[in-house]
Amino acid sequence: MNNAAIRETAVSAAKYAIERVLPEQAVKEALAGNIEGDIVLVAIGKAAWRMASAAYESLGSQIVRGCVITKDGYSMGPIGTLEIFEAAHPVPEQRNIDAARRAVSMVDGLTEKDTVLFLISGGGSALFELPPDGISLGDIAGMTSQLLACGANIVEINTLRKRVSSVKGGRFAQFCAPARVYSIVLSDVPGDRPDSIASGPAFPDSGTCGDALAVVRKYGLDLPQNILEKISVYETPKKLDNVVTRITGSGVVLCEAAQKFLTEKGFSVTLLTTTLDCEASEGGAFFAACACEAARTRKNRASSVAFIAGGEPVVKIKGGGKGGRCQEMALAAALGIQGLENAVFAAIGSDGTDGPTDAAGGVVDGGTARKILSAGLDPHAMLSGNDSYNALKAAGDLFITGPTGTNVNDLFLMLVE
After folding, report:
1. Cα 369 from Cα 375, distance rounded (Å)
2. What letter would DSSP give residue 279?
3. Which end of the chain is more exposed for a tag (fewer CB within 10 A), N or C?
4. Contact, 95 vs 130, CB < 8 A?
5. Three-class HEC string of 303-346
6. Does residue 140 sit in helix, strand or coil?
7. pTM assigned to the model
8. Is the peptide bond preceding residue 224 cis, with omega within 30 degrees of 0?
9. Beta bridge partners of 307
């Protein structure tokens, strides 16, 4: 198998895995026989449109009203009578608030005989926002920008988000009460913590105000006094009696699908972890080390090898470049396998978007660094400056899929023939 063939295998494995976590079938299975009577549907997140479409196909006239709040470009058109909102991600804008306010108005005045079908997927934290009294959109946007740049992981980020929101951390379920809430959740959080996925709008919160303040101290965040006061006292509900939650898809399924595909292609596969949580550049270097060790011992092996991981690494912004965590991880791996033959690394966001770019990630090999150098660029300097997008673009190694309609963490594959 030559380098081009290995690259094609890596891409095919990633595409196969993403197909296995598209939400339509999982939503239909979760709904089968579980809801009777009239339903108000609210869907939030990057997979909201696909989840809502599947629900509408299954339930039809049972849905009396509803709305879908998803990322710009992720709507695929009308769904029956549902109202469709596209909103900003990852930093919220006024239209995010307007959409959330509409969702809250739809569940107002319900009784214990009513059901809210709440479809949740990753990205919902930014897309579904309604500030409490004393907090402005600018306050939330500023805090979010700091959190995204400091290297905090998703659980830490959402611990703070929940304390400056009227709909996160179980509070949306309180708006729905006394109506029943049936939540179907597509997980993008390592470990599938339902109180962290989209900041848990309909799940009891396990964190505290003290936890939020600890995040502020850990990363030295410079927050205005009104936010500090709010997160010190605005505690989230610890018990909700009107909610049933079902998780239907996750990064575990994504990784296991890739593992199945590569095993059937004759690779000896090691699934390293489904909960990767590290600096993206360090993760790329580790995968490169795995490839170099596999290459060193190749004479003792009868088959090609693959290393798989899933999760959500972080990037601490130090430069002014363009990129995302998958692209940064791919660039770091490319530097580590420079000159290595028949090794390919793919780092791909399952939602089709990596950071504020049009790329899902990158697919690199032992020649990537050389191609960047041939373009007159310094790949090491570009990694240090968080400019992975332009480095991989110069090499022709960006991976672009467009919106996939799902979101279950990132997938990382290292293949060595």
Report:
1. 10
2. B
3. N
4. no
5. CCEEEEEEECCECCCCCCCCCCHHHHHHHHHHHHCCCCCCEEEE
6. helix
7. 0.93
8. no
9. 270, 414
